[in-house]
């Protein structure tokens, strides 16, 4: 009786069917864990940024882009050599080991600025590749029709993880220090290794993926630069890449403004403030992900769901230009990121159900990491030029951001229409 009631409640709230429950809950746990791990150390990374000028941070982001290009190229090579069943668990085991190493380096050279910069760069690379690999796995696990119903709920696991992670940082940083948080994050990152192995087993039995066993024994594609080639030759991937590139502009502008506001605040207090922002973002995001995203996507399609947040952000940026109050930037950041996590990101990840496996794992990492970080450095240097050379203040930056968000909205609308039209073709007799 109780299990039947739970099933009915889940189906009513999230549209999960009986045979999907186990896989969805495991997927939910998967992203909860990797996001919790990341968000424990994210405030540590972000707190370091206020020690550097806009020019120094832009230079660090440039190094991050170059490192991202290198890591994604190596990842593409690994995809072509390693059996799929070992690929995803191996990625998380590798990053866990790297964070253990960083923990010892940061403790051994606490006052060494270069170690802090290396830490900042590596966490930034991890933050995108680890999520990209997860969603590649999801697009490979669920069918297109399932993605519309399930990705919103699964994505809410990231929001809960992103609540748990900064809460750990917020309450433990004064007891353990920022360095101790790195050790907790590294240990937590070992959990997804076992979750990924289990989810591969139930793909075939619960979701009726008849090719799962065969695919698990194969590597993906060939060539170290295959992902870049896939990206360049497929219009849908180029469109997603443009979407990500513009999105990174909005993210960069808001990030730099908050960073500058916190220049005179001590490092541990900065960590608490960034953790507090993360906490507020994800409380809002998890409720939207549970009850809103799947209904938006199934009722209105991606032509409404995908551009919804970009349109809201464009409007808020123009309003901010009329009343450029500094605290409003923090509120804009909360709304932007909550909408991204609960609505825009799961909707964007649905687009990858339109492409083949090689594109999902190789080209997707190019888009999510290299294009994103390339956007970071482009927009970071543009922001630096607008503030340091042209002398624009918060109001002027908000106007520029509003026009960028308007273009972002248009690209989102076109991508959403492409997805919805493909659904009509698939469902036609």
Q: Tell me the span between the first and last alpha carbons.
A: 39 Å
**CATH 4th-level superfamily:** MFS general substrate transporter like domains
H and E string? HHHHHHHHHHHHHHHH
How many domain units? 1
Q: What does the average pLDDT come to?
A: 78
Specify the number of helices: 16
Largest sheet: none
Write the CATH fold name: Growth Hormone, Chain: A
Our estimate of the beta-strand percent is under 5%
Helix content: over 70%
Q: Please state the overall shape, judged from the principal axes of the Cα atoms.
A: globular
The assigned CATH architecture is: Up-down Bundle
Class based on secondary structure composition and strand pairing: mainly alpha
Overall description:
This protein has one domain (17-427): MFS general substrate transporter like domains (Growth Hormone, Chain: A, Up-down Bundle), CATH 1.20.1250.20. Helix 4 (84-108) runs antiparallel to helix 7 (191-207), helix 10 (235-261) packs antiparallel against helix 14 and helix 10 (235-261) packs parallel to helix 15. The longest helix is centred in the middle third of the chain and has 45 residues, at 144-188. The protein has helices spanning 2-14, 21-49, 54-81, 84-108, 113-141, 144-188, 191-207, 212-216, 226-233, 235-261, 267-291, 293-300, 302-322, 326-350, 357-389, 394-427. Helix content is 87%, strand content 0%. It starts with a helix and ends with a helix. With 429 residues, the protein is mainly alpha-helical. The chain contains 16 helices and no strands.
Short synopsis of the structure:
The chain has 429 residues and is an all-alpha fold. 87% of the residues lie in helices and 0% in strands.
